[in-house]
Amino acid sequence: MLTETTGRTAQDLTAELENWRGVDWVSVWDGPPQGGSPEFRAWCERYGWVPETFDRQLNVTTRSGGSWTFSDVLGGHWSPVRSVDHDAWQVRASTAAENGEVLSTAAETWPAYLQAAEAVLGTPTWTGTWDAEDFPEPPEPGYWPDREFRLESRRPYRFAYWKPAGATRGEPYVVLSQSVSFQVWTVDMPGGSTISVDVHAPSEFLRARR
């Protein structure tokens, strides 16, 4: 039997993306103040974020109940931030015999989550599968895997991204992707699939911090 581990729905994804409307992206990429300080609490409360951890990476829970991870440029320093990431859906097989069901369930689930993202972000800049001839190269390393990795690992398995659409300073690239674990392609290990959202700092912010 397949197990969905996030407890989240496509409607929840729409709500999560709505929560990011009106965010001051410059302050997000600059990163939070020192953890536990009054300034840090005010920084989180500004957007209704509740901090979950105070170790190497900052994790917060949003007003909609989703968990997001802030990934920093330097590694373990919290700021500056390069991306904010969220697992919107994740399914796991209990036996290898269910790997075929993982693939069929992933195929059935993806359109609903893509539509949920489109409800907030509009039409993607590009969407398709790992083996598409016109699959775009990432504008920055780390936004998503390059062609060599993708063709070798079939990851991301399904993919959509949105370029910054407005003139707001710091507006991110948004990536919705579905991965399928390598175990799915085996006959002796149970696999799984994940739909995730990655919100990336724009190139000019990343380059200024290198």
Describe the structure.
The chain is an alpha+beta fold and 210 residues long. The chain contains six helices and nine strands; from the N terminus they run βαααββββαβαβββα. The chain has helices at residues 10-19, 25-30, 38-45, 99-121, 147-153, 203-208; strands at 3-4, 50-51, 58-61, 67-72, 81-92, 126-129, 158-162, 173-180, 192-200. Strands 1, 2, 3, 4, 5, 6, 7, 8 and 9 form a nine-stranded antiparallel beta sheet that branches. Strand 2 (50-51) and strand 3 (58-61) form a beta hairpin. Helix 1 runs parallel beside helix 4. The longest helix has 23 residues, at 99-121. The chain is globular and about 50 Å long. The mean pLDDT is 92.
Summed up:
With 210 residues, this protein is an alpha+beta fold. The chain is 29% helix and 25% strand.
Q: SSE layout and pairings?
A:
Blueprint (H helix, E strand, L loop, with lengths): L2 E2 L5 H10 L5 H6 L7 H8 L4 E2 L6 E4 L5 E6 L8 E12 L6 H23 L4 E4 L17 H7 L4 E5 L10 E8 L11 E9 L2 H6 L2
Antiparallel strand pairs: 1-5, 2-3, 3-4, 4-5, 5-9, 6-7, 7-8, 8-9
